[in-house]
Amino acid sequence: MRLFASNPRAKKYLAILDGRPAGAGAISIHDGIAGLFGASTLPEFRRRGIQRELILVRLEAAFQAGCDFALSFALPGSASERNILRYGFRVAYTRTKFTRDLPPTKT
Q1: Rounded CA gap, 63 and 70, in Å?
Q2: Which backbone phi and psi does 2 adopt, to 5 degrees?
Q3: With CB atoms 3.0 to 4.6 Å apart as the test, which of 4, 9, 41, 101 could cross-link to 28 if both were Cys?
Q4: pTM of the full predicted structure?
């Protein structure tokens, strides 16, 4: 997604609900492929269709631009994954990262 996000032509979308910013997302198009990235909904606006609308408006932009494919990334099992699967995306692969909290260093 770094390629898509660094594109200066990436379009950013801001969702407004009741006159307040509720969420945002972006799309970048490269060689007929649309990358949907950066989707986020503020906690107080969740479960109100904000992410759905951000997905749909970006897919429409991809369609209008003549894209053949769209891709996105989401944490497996997350609400974001469930949302994008509802709109025709399929899991291409999963990737796991492992982290570990380390004890504080002694000074």
Answers
A1: 9
A2: -60, -40
A3: 4
A4: 0.79
